[in-house]
Amino acid sequence: MKAHVGIEENEMADRLAKKAAMDDIGHLVYDMCYNKIPISEIAKQEAEKIIAKWQIKWDATTKGRTTKEYFPNVMERLKMKLRLSPNLTAMLTGHGKTKVYLHRFKIIQ
């Protein structure tokens, strides 16, 4: 028979199954389960918020002037694939043994 329509026991089983699938307020549990936001989307949104806060602090600070010249935008820097080395770090932070650095501490003229 097509979907067991008209058979009383099957009709009762259908009603009980639908009732069991409802929560206390009368919503289908199925709808509740599949209308949730994926954890990956929540994590992505939270990461974007954190980076936005980081950018605000980065713009406001007076420290790291040399590094800011190379990387004024936090998001763009995070997209880059950099192999950090002592020489690169020294250059980006302005703490390398360059003539400017050595002159600043009166080591050379």
Annotation, overall tally of beta strands: 0
Shape: rod-shaped
The whole-number mean of residue pLDDT values reads: 81
Q: Strand portion, in percent?
A: under 5%
Characterization of this structure:
The chain has 109 residues and is an all-alpha fold. The radius of gyration is 31 Å and the shape is rod-shaped. It has seven helices and no strands. The model has no long low-confidence stretch (mean pLDDT 81). The chain has two domains: 2-34, no CATH class; 39-104, no CATH class. The chain is 61% helix and 0% strand.
Please provide a brief summary of the model.
The chain is an all-alpha fold. The chain has seven helices and no strands.
What's the helix and strand layout?
Blueprint: H1 8-20, H2 29-34, H3 39-60, H4 65-70, H5 74-79, H6 86-93, H7 99-104
Which terms summarize this structure?
single chain, 109 residues, mainly alpha, 2 domains, rod-shaped
